[in-house]
Amino acid sequence: MVAVRFSQPVWLLLLLVVAGLGVGYLLVLARRRRDTVRFTALELLEKVVPRTPGWPKHVPTAGILLALVLLTIGLAGPTAEGRVPRNRATVVLVIDVSLSMMASDVAPSRLAAAQAAAKTFVDDLPETINLGLVAFAGTAAVLVSPGTDRVPVQHAIDTLRLSESTPTGEAIFAALQSVETFSGSLPGDREGPPPAHVVVMSDGKQTVPGGEDAENQPRGAFTAARAAADSQVPVSTIAFGTVYGSIDLDGEQIPVAVDEPSMREVARLAGGESFSATSEGELRNVYAALGEEIGYETKQVDVSKPWLAGGTLATMAGLGSAFAFGRRIP
């Protein structure tokens, strides 16, 4: 059930006036009925006073009273919770383009499915969101700096190319730097820089830097996730692919199972959410859920228009019925 609040509830006092008018109308009817009964020449009354309809004669008054109620509620500024696009936010989409993304366990390939789903995500984000793009394989590169123009992002997604290595930490650091640079370029205001969110889509375990406890090294994924938390930039992750994935390198089948645990840990450390997807359809659903969370917020929005419209229509109905049943407009 939607809870309605009022921004100017003092106007609701006018409902007492409307109630008074309704009571007054009933009193007038009762007095008229009493006076009619006191008229002695009832036969003559029936001849000189035309018969009036029963309930239809009350329709005009009921319509006007209803209109006054609806218009009064509209004047009180009713508000309710509603989903509205965020007008200040920065999102950086980070996409893994390591060689493991050529695996075909997700048809037609992990990369092709990721590109299609990412483009849908870009299209569905509100135009007011500043969106940037980072791709990572051998290195992490900021392909598109945050902005509201979606054409460069779509083009960059279309032209993604695969390469060796998976430097997940470097990709997160690059996204954080992109957010910081963009926020620093904005004119200062009392609200501060817009809130930011990083979305990392990857299928494999970090390979750069390598070695023991690689994720916790200075440029590792977990270290980068902690840096994001310190900067108050949540990082949500999408582990994309299956545990059965493999790629053909020089005639040799190399297993490239999705690494969901590390992606989940990155999200936990960075204060984001973790998701997994094993098909393009699932990936689209994940992006849709993220788009709802990142691109929209719940606020108290003005809902007075339906009340004012209802009041206007009720007024028209009341006046129209007065003309139809009484041949006059009061």
Task: Offer a quick outline of the entry.
With 330 residues, the chain is of the alpha/beta class. It is built from ten helices and eleven strands.
Summarize the topology.
Elements: E1 5-6, H1 14-38, H2 42-48, H3 59-75, E2 78-85, E3 90-96, H4 110-124, E4 130-136, E5 140-147, H5 151-158, H6 168-185, E6 196-202, H7 221-230, E7 235-240, E8 246-249, E9 252-255, H8 260-270, E10 274-277, H9 280-295, E11 296-302, H10 304-326
Parallel strand pairs: 3-4, 3-6, 6-7, 7-10
Antiparallel strand pairs: 1-2, 2-11, 4-5, 8-9
Number of helices: 10
Parts with pLDDT < 50 across at least 5 consecutive residues: none
Shape: elongated
Taking strands numbered 1, 2, ... along the chain, how are they ordered across the largest sheet? 5-4-3-6-7-10
CATH superfamily placement of the largest domain: von Willebrand factor, type A domain
Question: How large is the radius of gyration?
Answer: 33 Å
From the coordinates shown, what is the CATH architecture of the largest domain? 3-Layer(aba) Sandwich
Helix vs. strand class: alpha/beta
Features:
single chain; 330 residues; alpha/beta; Rossmann fold; 2 domains
Report on the architecture of this protein.
With 330 residues, the protein is α/β, with parallel strands linked by helices. The chain folds into two domains: 5-81 and 301-326, no CATH class; 86-278, 3-Layer(aba) Sandwich (Rossmann fold). It contains ten helices and eleven strands. Helix 4 (110-124) links the parallel strand 3 (90-96) and strand 4. The two termini are 39 Å apart.
